[in-house]
Amino acid sequence: MDAIRHLDWSVQSWFAHVRGQPVLDALMGDITALGSEWVLVLVVLFSAGLLLAAQRRRTAWFLLLAAFSGAVLARLLKDGIHRLRPPTYHAVAGWLTSPYSFPSGHSMMSAVIYLTLALILTAVVQRRRVQVYVISCALVLVGLIGLSRLYLGAHYLSDVVAGWLVGLLWALLCRWIEARWVLRAERRAAEGEIL
Hints:
By secondary structure, the protein is mainly alpha-helical. It has one domain (2-194). 78% of the residues lie in helices and 0% in strands. Helix 3 runs parallel beside helix 5 (105-124) and helix 4 runs antiparallel to helix 5. 33% of the residues are buried.
């Protein structure tokens, strides 16, 4: 535990020295916004709407359930662990909805949402290059959002890493559930319409 605490403070200290450059502040503020609660809500709602328009009703409802349950899990973990945020954070970090930092909600929920969406898309796109590209873009985006939280001083390194890991595991679990039940049900329904 001491090694993790030392690493947390070392990373926090390094970012404190880098922080305060106008271009980086603006960039990291914009990147962190991509993992904010309201942006993720809009991404999920627009994506669910697209799935409904594509007549993938079950997947749309599944996406909504995956996002909602991920948010509940993040809140339970944060409130249950009660780890306070770093003592100082940059004003660009914006309004912090919770005084607790573990796990990073931005890191966890961006992993849940963006990776779940990437996995939903790769389930229907057969070209390997497209699958690799979509998953890679989602991973880079999730990585940048976590990095922005460190830069802004809103989280310790262990908060962000825990958020990434829990979010990734949740997205993979959701993909497994979707492959097992949702996609099969959609295929059966589509076959029933053809007959």
